[in-house]
Amino acid sequence: MPAPAPAAAAAPDTRTTLRTVLDELARRHPGLDRRIRDEQGRLRRYVNVFVDSDECRAMGGLDTPVADGAEVRVLPSVAGG
Fold first, then answer.
1. Bridge partners of residue 73, in order along the sequence
2. What is the distance between the alpha carbons of residues 70 and 11, in angstroms, rounded to a whole number?
3. pTM score, two decimals?
4. Which residues sit opposite 50 in a β-bridge?
């Protein structure tokens, strides 16, 4: 009789979110994080973050999934005259 297959819940969770990516960026470059996120950990209003070609606020905000190999771009808004 074959052994039962392992439960799906036992598989490691390999999903990554934008929050996880930004947390790692903050760990590597602490001064940069405060320019991207506010004191509550939310994205600053004037910063646009894209995962591949999708603006994260239209997707899931900080919970936007980031696939392996995806490109994450952080763009500050430009204002002035």
1. 50
2. 22
3. 0.74
4. 55, 73
